[in-house]
Amino acid sequence: MAKLDTPALEQSFLNNHGKNPIRAWLFSTDHKRIGILYLLSIGFFFLVGGLLGGLMRIELIAPGETIMDPQTYNGVFTVHGLIMIFLVVIPGLSAVFGNFFLPILIGARDVAFPKLNLLSWWLYIFGAILAISSQFLGSGAPDTGWTFYAPYSTETGSNVVLAVFSAFVLGFSSILTGLNFIVTVHRMRAPGMTWFKMPLFPWSLYATAWIQVLATPIVGVTFLMIVAERLFQIGFFDPSLGGDPLLYQHLFWIYSHPAVYIMILPAMGVVTEIIPTFAKKHIFGYKAIALSSLAIAAVGYFVWGHHMYTAGMSGTARWFFSFLTFIVAVPSAIKVFNWVATMHKGSITVRTPFLYTLAFIFLFMIGGLTGLWLGALATNVHLHDTAFVVAHFHYIIFGGMGFAFFAGLHYWYPKMFGKMYDEKLANVAFVIIFIGFNLLYFPLFIIGMQGMPRRYADYLPEYTGGHFWSTMGAIVLITGALLMIYNLIIRTRKKGTPAEMNPWGGKSLEWTLESPPKEHNFDEIPTITENPYNY
Amino acid sequence: MAHSNPLLEHRDDEGAKIGMWIFIFTEILLFGGLFLVYAVFRNQYSEDFHTAAFELNAFVGTLNTVILLCSSATVAMSITAVLKKDRKTAMILLGITLVLALVFMVNKYFEWSHKIHEGIYPGSELMADLERGELLFFSLYYFMTGLHALHILIGMTILTVILFKVRNGSVNDDKIVLLENGGLYWHLVDLIWIFLFPLLYLIT
Amino acid sequence: MDDKNKKHITSYQTYGIVLVGLLILTFISVGVTWIELGPLTVTVALLVASVKVFIVLTYFMHLKYDSLFIKLMVAGIFILFAVIIVITFLDYWFR
Hints:
The structure holds 3 protein chains of 3 kinds. By secondary structure, chain A is an all-alpha fold.
């Protein structure tokens, strides 16, 4: 935490008022403190997941066994997926910046159910402990991949039950956050803030919250079925017990495809807040952006089958899912168009958050367009389960959600901690991260198209070049990420200057508060008269 | 820093109710996943489901349906009683609800132990010899009624807490949202049983 | 907040009548199983169950007196679930 050495910090929510700091943090129902608890825990798991990813890249630097045997590799990619998906990117933006800024942006003092909010975080930690211990307890780390496909997940000797149960608990945490946000948006908007005067980050969080609430239960019960199958031989998915493995894939993807939108929608919301601030221009197509969030949430719910083209689905189902997959690209494209149109003829100042935002748009477009290759039936058959898929979803999840997270972090950091970081160093870190990211994942598109399968610990010599450069990219990326962390934590703590109230010249409500905000945000709840983007 | 906490003054019954409904949606979809599994397998093995359902005791099923419907009515009535400031009746009605729930669980216990005694339970030798659809039917039977029974237990816990809160007056005609939400949860348990009952017991 | 003082109190009689109605519907759906309807048996059972659920939602769960927003959400959930079933069966029916 930042040291309380300025008057602003003294009066802010960061002051413990002499209470035991551990209790004052771990049992605080203040949405801002909970947001920071999530930031720290998610940051920690991001590093763990990143480390595992780095180990995988080192194993793949050359053909043959480098640092681990194939079974260990299976465990490592499963844990990497489990941690990154369930502990980092799904809660990611909505739990950190959603918690911190949703109430502030709509002019409220807290979320609708502050205690429930704290419970969500505790469930998250409980689930995280289960997930980590599943790696060490019992009969070895799960080796199924994060998808837990049956019947392998019901037969393998590794510790699937605990891992699956941890995902169940984490899902519960995610549901409670979603529920909280929906009620908050409905009931706690400041007087005068009609739906179409609400900033667009809350809009995207609202759409996200609905997916969290409506999709997560399905995978919850599916995971319970896996547990029942392993413990009591209640067979729904194992053919030897009468079940149908393909049904598992349906149930799993009914959640896990919308989960992609749980990750990306808040990212789009963050970007939509940042662009008008730095272009000094009203957001282009406000309503189109707001409604496209809902459209993405609604249509995105029904495209799960595009993960299963080669699994033996009926032809009818396949063209249907492919068709809807193309439809869902439309609202995403509307957003990209509106972001670019907002920048058009704006008076742009290029600062660190804006750089990450530009990178987001670029990487998200690569990820999104390659998604259409995968969404098309014919090309999918060729690309299914290759490194191409790995590259595609890392461009969406890391290049999209991850870069938006970094953008939001640099955008709101002065507001959250009351200190300004070294922007030059932040820009250097950005350049390194951006280069490293592309060097890491772009070669995977190419070797994927040439036929490199995903999830393999070993490969034929012809893929050596791509894998080598990819591993180099991983090293560059990790260097950049460590530099960013050094800048934000260590350097700012020592040399950060006190942040102004409104360092970027933004117009939304958080910039009317002190940096960092007081305990209950607003002394007086503001009355809203105009749209948040009137520059 | 002795300023009053504005959050403590914040109270929004409508918001609490919306929150409860959203939670109920998640429960509906949780069971919805199971109903989807049921639909898929029944579509594939309707003959087997038909024969297997004969093994279940429709009388016990009907009895439990009646019990749950009555308990739902008593919870709903207890809200009326609290709103009429009739604390005693409210407590009696909630007490009846809890007794009915207990009777439901006892019935369930005897029903399950009878089936297990007959050798029909997951992993048994007899189950392995059954037709594929019959096997799935009994798997679904145990899983769905088991998960439902778990919800009954949770509901009983919630209603017990509320009963005590009615007694000490912290749930009253002005602050009734907790009882209303507890009631909603109990009706949800009823709602799910209303679908489970015909799908498991009445498809003979 | 706005409707704190005009909370609707449903009478005991109403709940009694609703309960009797639900019990009658239960016995109807049990009785129907004795009639040989072939594949229609399930349809009838589910129809009766849907009517019962509708009654429980309207009266016991108080939807009749709730805001339009809550009503729409509840309707939306059942529609959503129906759509999920139909889409999944696009696979199973056409294999």
